[in-house]
């Protein structure tokens, strides 16, 4: 593959000092039973492909991305395709938290825009390391390890552990864009996908999409996915929900139950028959129906002559209460220090429906 001088220079600046650390060096993990194959690059500890079988036994790549993974670095649209996001994911009011000043998803060069180092790799797992040296104005140094692993029965699990040298806010997520049809059989969006979220509350947002401190009771509203609904079932009622002129969802649901013991979120498609059940140790999930997405597709999704457009995928992000560090009335502690490490875990279990 021809790599531009710009990308090579960027790789050097990002710390690619040996072959295994090259930002776009591909790692492929496959479960022994062939039920799941996942591919990753060091840049952002990003998942680039995820192959699972549909009801007919045919593998489909069910996440969005690029054929040329170096576009994760150079694409000006920067849709945040499937990386680990930090040091503080999602939103921060006024871009500030005590001594730090950042923007959406941890800053202009957050963890999704950094080269992680491979520290171990097997046929079924890979572990990456990133040292955040007080980047983007956050206090202290944070050392993080992200481990991706696949196992029999169609299981993908990602864990991230992080330790800080001094008090600092930490909130992470894995920003995965799903389309369980993989743009096959005439499917171009996720409005017919079924969604179930074990949550009776959604974090209320102001006109800048920042938490007000209140919660929305989902009863009799377009936010109610406690019983499965097609994502587009109440679509006419989602106009302006995700911002002025935006149709769809971009909100955080707070789980009613411990999502590490119960499935927090389920997504499935009647067309492919593929279902994913998500369990996590996090208290909330952000669901974004990709209104602002406009990026060329992978070859396996129809190729670059077609685009991933609005509503073509749904991002489902397991995370903490967004902007809790600026919403003290919630009583949610997102400040970590040497005596209090951070740990994030999510498991994605795939199956098929008849």
From TrEMBL:
User: Transmembrane residues, as ranges?
Assistant: none
Q: Which organism is it from?
A: Pleurotus ostreatus
Swiss-Prot/TrEMBL keywords: Carbohydrate metabolism, Isomerase, Signal
Q: Which Gene3D superfamilies match?
A: 2.70.98.10
Keyword Signal tagged: yes
Family from the record: Belongs to the aldose epimerase family.
Is the Nucleotide-binding keyword given for this protein? no
Q: What is this protein called?
A: Galactose mutarotase-like protein
Q: Known SUPFAM superfamilies for this protein?
A: Galactose mutarotase-like (SSF74650)
Which biological process, per GO, is one annotated for this protein? Answer: galactose catabolic process via UDP-galactose, Leloir pathway
Task: State a single Gene Ontology molecular function.
Answer: aldose 1-epimerase activity
The protein's matches in Pfam families, at most eight in alphabetical order, are given as: Aldose_epim
Q: Return the InterPro entries for the record.
A: Aldose_1/G6P_1-epimerase, Gal_mutarotase_sf_dom, Galactose_mutarotase-like, GH-type_carb-bd
Q: Which CDD domains match?
A: galactose_mutarotase_like (cd09019)
Signal peptide residues are 1-19
Highest taxon of source: Eukaryota
């Amino acid at each position: 593959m021809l790599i531009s001088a710009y990308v090579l220079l960027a790789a050097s600046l990002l710390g690619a000092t040996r072959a295994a650390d090259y930002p776009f060096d591909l790692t492929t993990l496959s479960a022994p039973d062939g039920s799941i194959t996942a591919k990753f690059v060091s840049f952002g500890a990003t998942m680039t492909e995820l192959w699972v079988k549909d009801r007919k036994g045919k593998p489909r790549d069910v996440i969005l991305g690029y054929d040329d993974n170096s576009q994760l670095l150079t694409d000006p649209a920067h849709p945040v395709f499937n990386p680990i996001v930090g040091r503080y994911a999602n939103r921060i009011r006024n871009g500030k938290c005590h001594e730090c000043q950042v923007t959406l998803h941890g800053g202009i060069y957050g963890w999704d825009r950094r080269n992680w180092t491979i520290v171990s790799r097997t046929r079924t797992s890979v572990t990456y390391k990133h040292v955040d040296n007080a980047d983007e104005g956050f206090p202290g140094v944070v050392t993080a390890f992200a481990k991706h692993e696949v196992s029999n029965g169609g299981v993908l699990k990602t864990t991230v552990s992080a330790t800080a040298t001094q008090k600092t806010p930490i909130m992470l997520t894995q920003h995965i864009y799903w389309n369980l049809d993989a743009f096959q059989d005439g499917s171009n969006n996720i409005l017919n996908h079924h969604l179930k979220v074990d949550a009776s509350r959604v974090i209320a947002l102001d006109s800048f999409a920042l938490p007000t401190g209140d919660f929305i009771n989902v009863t009799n509203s377009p936010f109610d996915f406690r019983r499965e609904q097609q994502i587009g079932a109440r679509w006419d009622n989602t106009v302006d929900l995700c911002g002025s002129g935006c149709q769809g969802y971009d909100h955080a649901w707070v789980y009613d139950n411990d999502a590490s013991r119960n499935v927090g979120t389920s997504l499935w498609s009647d067309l492919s028959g593929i279902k994913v059940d998500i369990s996590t140790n996090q208290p909330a999930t952000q669901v974004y129906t990709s209104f602002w997405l406009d990026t060329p597709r992978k070859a396996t999704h129809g190729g670059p002559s077609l685009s991933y457009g609005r509503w073509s995928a749904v991002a489902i992000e397991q995370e903490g209460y967004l902007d809790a560090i600026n919403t003290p009335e919630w009583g949610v502690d997102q400040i970590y220090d040497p005596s209090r490490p951070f740990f994030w875990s999510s498991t994605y279990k795939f199956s098929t429906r008849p």
